[in-house]
Amino acid sequence: MSDRTLPRLLQTPAVLLLLVWMLVPLGMTLFFSFIRYVLNSLRRPEWTSPSIDNWRGFGNYQFVWNNDGFWLAIYNSVFIVTSIVVFTVIFGLAIAILVNRSFPGRGIVRVLLISPFFVMPAVNAVLWINMILDPVLGLQGIAVAGLNEMIDGLRDFPVLGGFFSLWPELSPISFRATQTSAYAVIIMVTWQWTPFAVLIFMTSLQSEDQQQKEAAILDGAGKWSMFRNLTLPHLGRPIAIVVMIQAIFHLSLYAEIEIVSRGNGNKNLPYLIGEFATNNIGAASAAGIFAVILANVIAIFLLRMVGKTLMD
Amino acid sequence: MASVTIEQVIKRYGDTQVMHGVDLDIQDGEFVVFVGPSGCGKSTLLRMIAGLEDISDGTIEIGGTVVNEVAPAKRGVAMVFQTYALYPHMTVYNNMAFGLKQAKMDKAEIDKRVRAAGEILHITDYLERTPKALSGGQRQRVAIGRAIVREPEVFLFDEPLSNLDAALRVQTRLEIARLHKRLGTTMIYVTHDQVEAMTLADKIVVLRDGRVEQVGAPVDLYERPKNTFVAQFIGSPKMNFFAPSALAATAPADLRGGSEDALLVGIRPEHLRVCEPSEAIVTARLDLIENLGEHVLAHMVATDGTEFIAKMETLPEGADTSAMQFTAAPERVHRFDKASGLRQ
Fold first, then answer.
1. Domain B4-233 listed as CATH 3.40.50.1820
2. Strands annotated E in chain B
3. What are A217-247's pLDDT values in tens digits?
4. pLDDT in the model for residue B1
5. pLDDT averages per 10-residue partition of chain B, 344 residues
6. Which residue does chain B place closest to A219, by CA atoms?
7. Are residues A218 and B99, on separate chains, in Cβ contact within 8 Å?
8. What keywords were assigned to this record (chain A) (predicted)?
């Protein structure tokens, strides 16, 4: 018996538990995805219980693959996740650098900055879509109406009025529409998750070496050059962390999509799975396996991109 | 190359004043060391010359131009930091080239300068490595290289050796001395280590609490310290001080006869020697011996309880350690005013 055996034995229960935790659901999903299994069927009552007798092979996969919404869902998943990640990193960087310098009331500002993160996703979505983005009652509607009124007033001016009368009337955007509902989701999730990026970037900025900056000042580097050559490389690792964690989280967005448009026009994969799962568990499981594959493809890309930063 | 003139420089942080009107003249090509205990303002003064701290009052001139309002990069100074402050994401080459690139210098010229500096500092083999892959001593060389390539008028060193281990410190100290000899540029060097100050400096500036205590050649400071602070700061172990009452009856009358409140007698440990009772300046018993091999440090207690240290080659054989007599050459005995601490 080598001296490694005892520690390994002691670890075994934990490892086994984790394995079971992961493998059982995955195994069940795989099994369901290869059989006909629905919750409710008057015509074929034998399909309502999971059984190997109802084997369907790759039928469920074919069904999902050929579903109208499938490719849109994949495209939307990738589009929404990428947009959110890009915006949160940019806004997060800008805000973290802004609040990194000292000013009166910095403590309060920091707490306020973090607070969106504590709002529940569903509440966040309701607030945004009804109170801010609503074309009539929301802030957006009020702002657009106000602008129109102002331009209207300017039209009565001599000389200049002629110029303003060429302007078209602005119309508010309906964010529940098929073409725009994805943007609404991106806006609200970006608002909610920017604080997360700010929090991580802020702690990292505080650990930045001040003497390096002084050396750069003596080397004649300007603000932009210092940001580009010192701060940005220093933030490489936190950026990688923010990107990875958010990619994992936002692949499973659901509440916002449900509340904004009930999936109208901007279903993502989890939403599609949800729709199948109202009755067709077999198809839902097949879509779930596709989601696992998509998540892995994205994870491999991310690891390729950011893995190097994390390894250094 | 340039001279540096500091006139009535004052530094305040809010209401607290930390530099109290410093005046200093640094000649072209001189190696000047600022020395003093922590918090004496030596680093602040250096950073004011570099332009990293602004000057509350007074003027600093470099090469005849007042630089109070000149941007750090335009002052013709280059600085070597205590923590090296290398740019961690750049190779050694790019670390050295960074300043030149910022100045939009020609690529070929940059390459020439970086390789020349690499030659001088023997770092040509790892120009393509990042600082992470270097040892402390190598990093410090790169930091020095980064200063050299800019061909500054004045080099500024902010405790460059304090992060190195003892052996490397001695070696790097020598290299800095060689570098000064080779380049002949004005160098200003901050340290709290009086050994570095003594070995490197043409001129030492001793600072305390934001004031200049004494300026002079190392030997001057050692032989003729202006006050008790400088006397204690320069030299290791520290100078011993005796009140007149601590001295033996055989001590010269002008030392022993001095007023108790007015006089403090200072003798360096290395200048005390064991003697006959008839010529003793001080009598003491041995408390403890520290044997360093090449010499011993004898910790003594004088008859009135004053503790002092005597440095000698060996303890004399058969000496009565309960009552030893010490004397020193008259020119090695320093007299200070007790109240003001000034040399008499």
1. no
2. 4-13, 16-26, 31-35, 57-62, 65-66, 77-80, 154-158, 186-191, 203-208, 211-216, 240-242, 263-267, 273-274, 282-291, 296-302, 307-312, 324-327, 333-337
3. 999 988 999 999 999 999 988 998 899 889 9
4. 64
5. 89 91 93 92 93 92 91 92 91 94 92 92 90 90 92 92 88 91 93 90 93 94 93 90 87 76 89 89 91 92 91 85 89 89 86
6. B99
7. yes
8. Cell membrane, Membrane, Transmembrane, Transmembrane helix, Transport
Q: Which positions ≥6 away from A192 have C-beta within 8 Å?
A: A116, A117, A119, A121, A124
Q: What span, in angstroms and rounded, lies between the C-alpha atoms of A205 and A102?
A: 13
pLDDT at A157: 79
- Separation between Cα atoms, residue B107 and residue A185, nearest integer Å: 49
Domain boundaries, chain B: 4-233, 240-337
| Inter-residue contact A177 to A133 (CB < 8 Å) | no
Q: Residue B69 has which token pair?
A: 């309002």
Residues of chain B with Cβ-Cβ distance to A216 below 8 Å are 87, 98
Instruction: Taking the CA atoms of A110, A112, A118 and A121 in sequence, report the sign of the dihedral they define.
Output: negative
Q: Which of B51, B85, B89 sits opposite A215 (nearest CB)?
A: B85
Residues β-bridged to residue B33: B189, B204
Please report, as a single letter, which amino acid is at residue A248.
I
Query: Which stretches within B184-303 are classed as H helix?
Result: 194-200, 218-223, 228-233, 253-256
Q: How far apart are CA B279 and CA B296, in angstroms?
A: 23
A138's tokens: 């929301």
Neighbour tally for A28: CB within 10 Å = 12
Distance CA B135, CA B124 (A): 15
Determine if the peptide bond prior to A7 is cis (ω within 30°): no
Q: In whole angstroms, what is the distance from residue B320 CA to residue B106 CA?
A: 75
Supply the ipTM of this predicted assembly: 0.84
Side by side, which strands form the sheet with B333-337?
Answer: B240-242, B263-267, B333-337
Token couple for A176: 């529940």
Which residues in chain B have their CB less than 8 angstroms from residue A212's CB? 85-88
Element (H, E) at A138: none
Report the distance separating Cα A211 and Cα A205, nearest Å: 14
What is the Cα Rg of chain B in Å? 24
Residues A75, A94: Cα–Cα separation, whole Å:
29
Residues 37-56 of B with CB under 8 A from A: 50-52
Query: How many residues does this entry show for chain A?
Result: 312
The size of the A-B interface in CB pairs under 8 A is: 63
Domain regions of chain A by residue span: 56-124+181-311
Domain A56-124+181-311 has CATH 1.10.3720.10: yes
List the structure tokens of B162: 């304090």
End-to-end alpha carbon distance in chain B? 39
Digit-coded pLDDT (tens) for A94-134: 999 999 888 898 889 988 988 998 899 999 999 999 899 98
Q: Cα separations (Å) of A22 from A13, A19, A28, A30, B199?
A: 14, 5, 10, 12, 68
Closest CA to B175 of B151, B148, B153: B148
For residue B302, what is the enclosing H or E element?
A: strand B296-302
DSSP β-bridge partners for residue B17: B12
Selecting from A216, A217, A220 the residue whose C-beta is nearest the C-beta of B103 gives: A220
- Please write down the HEC assignment for all residues of A32-75: HHCECCECCCCCCHHHHCCCHHHECCCHHHHHHHCCCCHHHHHH
Check if B29 contacts A (Cβ < 8 Å).
Answer: no
As a CATH number, domain B240-337 is 2.40.50.140
Question: What is the C-alpha to C-alpha distance for residues B293 and B153, in angstroms, rounded to an integer?
Answer: 44
Cα–Cα distance between B129 and B316 in angstroms, integer?
Answer: 57
Q: What confidence category does residue A308 fall into, taking pLDDT thresholds of 50, 70 and 90?
A: low
Cα separation, A32 vs A43, whole angstroms: 20
* A218–B78 CB contact, under 8 Å: yes
